[in-house]
Amino acid sequence: MAEVNTVARPYTKAAFEYAMDKGNLDQWSATLTLAAAAAEDENVVRVLGNPALTDAQKADLMIGLCEEADEAGKNFLRLLAENKRLAILPEINTQFAKLKADQEKSLDIEVTTAFELQDEQQEKLAQALKTKLGREVILSSQVDKSILGGAVIRTDDLVIDGSVRARLAKLAEAMNS
After folding, report:
1. CA 77, CA 83: separation in Å to the nearest integer?
2. Pfam families attached here (predicted)?
3. CATH number of the domain at 4-101, out of 1.10.520.20, 3.40.720.10, 2.20.25.530, 3.40.50.2300?
4. How far apart are CA 75 and CA 63, in angstroms?
């Protein structure tokens, strides 16, 4: 069976191109986020897995859960239902969000530190990352005392590990080799 991301890609591309042409990326993003959340809900998964329901009934269920969807969004959900692809909505949403972020030249970055960052520190870090990466940065932070100090910065396929824990691990590796 094909990978979920491979199956989702053409649907994502079509939805993204349509949303770009119509100038409503935000509305499509909101619709797909809601539809993806619904498609992951265990009660919805159970209902969608019911073989007694027709594709049209499954589509109507999803459309009912995504009330703010425009007519094109509703048609998109109908198409997914007809092709038995409602289960890949979370992957479509993830891919759509990445395409949208690329289009808007923005990047979601997660920073993990041993201690809470002050607002001024977050702003300086966001500005430095914006300069380095050439994109708008949306920063979210979390605290993990196990890293001891420093910071771990993550976004998609980029990880910058400047934690004390990582440095100690490198030092231990160097001493053991």
Report:
1. 10
2. OSCP
3. 1.10.520.20
4. 9
The residues that bridge with 160 in the sheet, in sequence order, are 153
Tell me the domain boundaries of the chain: 4-101, 105-176
- The answer for residues whose C-beta is within 8 angstroms of residue 74's C-beta and 6 or more apart is 63, 66
What global pTM score does this model have?
A: 0.67
pLDDT digits (tens, 9 = 90+) for 41-68: 999 999 999 999 999 999 999 999 988 8
**Residue 74: which of 90, 85, 83, 62 has the closest Cα?**
62
Q: What 8-state DSSP symbol labels residue 88? A: G
CA 89 to CA 15: how far, in whole Å? 12
Give the helix/strand (H/E) hosting 39: helix 25-40
The three-state secondary structure class of 64 is helix
Q: Report DSSP letters for 13-26, one per residue.
A: HHHHHHHHHHT-HH
Q: Name the residue among 129, 94, 96 with its Cα closest to residue 26.
A: 96
CA distance 12 to 106: 19
